[in-house]
Every structure is written in C-alpha cells, then in structure tokens.
Design goal:
The chain is α/β, with parallel strands linked by helices. Helices cover 44% and strands 15% of the residues. The chain has 16 helices and twelve strands. Helix 12 crosses helix 13 (264-272).
C-alpha cells in the first residue's frame, strides 16, 4: 500500500520525538513512496502545522477526550494531532475522509486503538471557531496555548516587546512562509528571474525587503526549476541578505565568512562584490562546506574558497588581514520558528552557554579585522542575551571597535549599528544585525 501524506507526517513527527530527527528531512527522504509530488507538500504542511499548533491542539484534545495526552500511545497521539490539525486548519479534505483515513492508519499501526481514535475524532468540532476559548491563570499562559509557544519564550517576548507586539510575533511564527530566493545578479536581473519563475507556474513576487529578494510559493522541488538549476537564484532569507548588505563588502576586497554553511552570506557577499576579490568561506563542518562548494559552482562564482575551521580559534595568519569579517554565530534559532517550528521546543537550559560561545567566536572574528575594516555580527534569534548583550560585551572588551549605522528599509526604523528584526515586520526571519567598525 502506498504511503499517504498523513502517514508520512505521522512518521516524521515520531522520528522527531524518538530521536530528535529533523521531521521535514524524514518526510522528504520518503518522497519516493508517496503517490504524487503534491503529497509531499501536504505531508510537510501537516507535520509543520502540528508542531506550530501542538500546545493548542493538545489542550483541546485533552478537554474533548477527557484524557491527558500522556494516556495515548505515541503513534496514536500523533495520528490524533495530525487529524485535528487537518480538521481545524485545512479546508480541502472533508471531515469524514480525514477521520476515515486516521482510523485506517491506526488499524495498521496500532490496531487496538482504532476504536478510540474513531471515538475521539468524531467528538472534535469540524470548525475551529466552535472550539472552547482558551482560558488560563495568566495572559502569558493563554498566549502560550493559543499560539503553541512554550511559556518561557512568551514571557521573554512579553518582557521585551509588550503584549501587542508579542502576539503579532507569535502569530507570524505560525504562518506558512513562501520560499525566499535571492537573485544572482551576476547572471540575471530580478525582473528576468521573476518572469522565469512565473513561467514555470510558481507564484512569485518581489519582497518588500529588496528587489533582489523574491518570495515564491508552489515551487515544488527547487532542483526542478530552471531558474534554480541555472544558478539565477539561491535560497536566502531577506533578513540574512540585509545583514550582508549592511556589511557593504566592496568590489575587490577581502571578506572572511566565519560560520558560513550552507553559504548564503558568502554567495551574497561575492555577488555584491561583482565576483572580484576574495571570500573565504569557513565552517567547522567539512560536510556542510560541500554545500557551499556546490552552490558556488551552480551560481558561477569564482572568488569563494572554502576551509574547515573552528571559528572560536583565531588563526595567526588572519590577524588584521580582512577588510570585512562576517560572524553569523551559532544561536538558539528562535527567529526561524516559522520555517523550523520544532525549534520552539528547545529547553531554556540548552541555551544557557550560547552567549559564551558566541562571544568567543566574535572575539576571534574581531582579531581578523584590519584597521578601518568592518565586523558584522548576526544571529537568527531575537533574544537579547544572544544579540545586544554579546555585542555590547565585545565593545567593552574591544574599545577599538565602534558601532556604525547602516541603511535598512524604512519598516525597520533607524539603527545605531544594531537592529533586531522581528518576523511580523516584513515577512522575514527574526534576525539580529550588528555592524562594528575598527578604528584606524
């Protein structure tokens, strides 16, 4: 029997729970077992939808079934979650068909629970508006359940951004996002790339961030698109592109990208430099550097060289040798929860040492900047502990660096060399950009 999109989603979720696997990668690896390419898109949507709405779904499942989620076998719980998400958030499949398929999957995978699954799903309202309103002891808890973000994340956001902005950020984290593609202006123009995508049946538009960023939906496999195969576009979020733009690498200059894989910032820098100069693209993972190398060939870039390197260990030969150093440090990733919803379930204790690691790498990056050069620090998180606090500590240790303002789209306001981009502003990832100039 061929694998269905619903069962593929269940398998991805189980692999994530049991061994911490990337659920989207598990599903994609089984694409050959799905009857149609559109089933892959549905399976990925179901899996991401469950993770984006898990606390909300579980809260209602417990009240409707009269049982805690811990009562159900793991596979039964995932079948119920996928089915509930489908009933409440997707409109294309009739409720009867959704329930019927859930029962059939249960019969094959957990036969003794088929009756239970049938009984619970038939109790679920078919319209999300008919669900009981979430009520809790605090607004933080209510927001946590309504938008399925652990309460510690909600409390951090509330403390920094207030209730109204926090709710907007949480809502943005749960929205389906188009694929963000940066245009390779070495080979084409934004207009030509946009037209080519549309001719391939892709729904595409220019991002508010820049004319060089295109937002695409319905791409299917990127490798199937002529614009991607020919190296006219590459995957890069608008916020990451803005970070490289803030660094302003000049044609013919020397750029060091310290934590580069999978290569987006190295590509952007080389393109902005008009393929003249040198970009040293480094990462601790040799395997990931293979992605940089293959992307470089596809994009037709000649000036990128790769090297495996621990960013936290300064190299003597790098000292004062680079015009621009880009330090996109390892972080919690809480700015990309719309694309990787499983990230929100990280435990806060897992993140405690990150600022120390980031500062160590940033300090090594500072050593490599020539007098008068630029140090660009960025992360894909919105936590102050990993962003402003780290940058400010470096400035305390290194008074030979000063923040330098940079140009951004008006939606992001003014900056004094540091800006936190929230995911509700312009459809980008949540991101932090800090530009520092080394005194001469």
């Amino acid at each position: 029997m061929p694998l269905s999109a619903r069962e593929a989603a269940v398998n991805g979720l189980l692999a994530y729970r049991r061994r911490g696997a990337r659920p989207d990668m598990v599903i994609t690896s089984a694409a050959g077992e799905l009857p149609h390419p559109r089933d892959l898109a549905l399976a990925l949507r179901l899996c991401a939808g469950v993770l984006q709405n898990q606390l909300f779904i579980d809260w209602h499942l417990e009240r409707i079934s009269g049982r805690s989620t811990g009562y159900f076998e793991p596979i039964v719980l995932e079948i119920l979650r996928v089915s509930a998400y489908q009933l409440w958030f997707l409109e294309r499949v009739p409720a009867r068909a959704a329930v019927s398929e859930a029962v059939e999957i249960t019969k094959r995978r957990a036969p003794g629970a088929a009756g239970l699954v049938n009984a619970v799903l038939r109790k679920l309202p078919q319209n999300i508006n008919d669900l009981e309103k979430v009520r809790a002891d605090t607004r933080a808890t209510e927001l946590s359940i309504e938008y399925s973000h652990p309460r510690w994340i909600v409390e951090e956001l509330l403390g920094r951004f207030g209730a109204e902005r926090t709710e907007a950020v949480l809502r943005a984290d749960n929205e389906a996002r188009p694929v963000s593609l940066a245009v390779n202006t070495l080979k084409t123009t934004p207009r030509e790339a946009l037209d080519l995508l549309r001719e391939a049946g892709v729904t595409a538009e220019t991002s508010a961030v820049s004319g060089n960023i295109l937002l695409a939906a319905g791409t299917g496999s990127l490798e199937s698109l002529e614009a991607f195969r020919r190296g006219l576009v590459y995957v890069q979020d608008g916020a990451a592109w803005l970070a490289v733009k803030a660094a302003s690498p000049e044609r013919g200059s020397r750029v060091l990208d310290m934590c580069s894989a999978p290569g987006g910032k190295s590509f952007a820098a080389a393109i902005m430099m008009e393929n003249e100069g040198l970009v040293s693209s480094r990462d601790i993972s040799e395997k990931k550097l293979g992605l940089v190398e293959s992307g470089t060939r596809r994009l037709g870039i000649d000036i990128i060289e790769t090297a495996a390197s621990d960013g936290g260990l300064p190299r003597q030969e790098d000292r004062g040798a680079w015009d621009t150093v880009i330090c996109d440090a390892p972080c919690s990733g809480l700015g990309v929860m719309a694309k990787k919803p499983e990230i929100r379930y990280k435990k806060p204790e897992e993140l405690e040492r990150l600022p120390q690691v980031q500062l160590r790498i940033l300090a090594a990056a500072a050593e490599a900047v020539r007098p008068g050069g630029v140090l660009l620090y960025s992360t894909c998180t919105v936590r102050r502990q990993e962003n402003e606090d780290v940058a400010e500590e470096l400035l305390r240790q290194r008074p030979d660096f000063v923040p330098e303002s940079f140009t951004m789209p008006s939606a992001f306001g003014e900056n004094g060399g540091m800006v936190t981009i929230l995911p509700d502003t312009a459809g980008t990832d949540g991101f932090f950009i800090c530009k520092l100039r080394k005194r001469i």
